[in-house]
Structure formats: C-alpha cells, structure tokens
Amino acid sequence: MGFLFWIIKACFWTGLLGVYFDIFLLSQPDWFYKPGVINGSVQGMAYDSGTSSYLLDIRSGSEREQFYIDYRIYGRLKVDDQVELMYLPVRREVIRCELISGSKAEE
Predict the structure, then answer these.
(1) Phi-psi region of 96 (alpha: psi -120 to 50; beta: other; left: phi over 0)
(2) Of all residues in the chain, what percent are helix, strand and coil, respectively (each to 5)?
(3) How far is CA 101 from the centre of its chain?
C-alpha cells in the first residue's frame, strides 16, 4: 500500500512540474530573457488580418527588424518617426514605445 501511494505521489509531482515546464519554457520563453531595446526610425506599419496583429518595421543603422505592436501604438506612429522600443526578444512584441521625434512628439 505504501509503494502505491509513493507512485501516485511521484506521478502527481511529475505532472505538476510538467505543467510549469510547459508554461514557462514552451509557452512563455520570454520569462528567462532580458527585454531588448532598439532605437530607430519607423520604416513601415501594417495590419495582418490573418493573425489580427499590427506589425512595425524599424530601421536601426543598417538593420531592419519587425515587431508586433498593439492598436494604440499603431494609431500614434507615422513613417519616419524616431522611436525607442523595449520588446520581448522571442515573441518580438513591443512592451514599451517611446517616441523620440516625429509628428506626435513635436505637437
């Protein structure tokens, strides 16, 4: 009887650890990385109706990178605005956007 209880207890803890492993490492891998920061100019913006997401193209020096943004940021930015973005490195989602210069910053 004690051995059966030990097996059930071991299976419970293995399942519980498996759930947390799935949550933190597979579903939300950005928990373990520092957010990235990039300064650059907005090169383009688009709405992808297939994934219902807003995309932002940023040029920083000679590099051009694409990020996911929310609708509020999408509505405030214009092409050629200078921005500083803080983003999740794996999912490429912007978590903070600071407008350095551009149409809204000059108002």
Answers:
(1) beta
(2) 35, 40, 25
(3) 23
Distance CA 49, CA 1 (A): 58
* Residue 76 β-bridge partners: none
CB atoms within 10 A of CB 9: 10
Q: Is the pTM of this model over 0.85?
A: no
Q: Cα-Cα-Cα-Cα dihedral of 54, 107, 36, 38, to 10°?
A: 100
**78 vs 16: CA distance, rounded Å:** 47
**Residue 54 one-letter amino acid:** Y
Taking only the tens place, the pLDDT of each residue in 17-59 is: 998 888 777 777 787 789 999 999 999 999 999 889 999 999 9
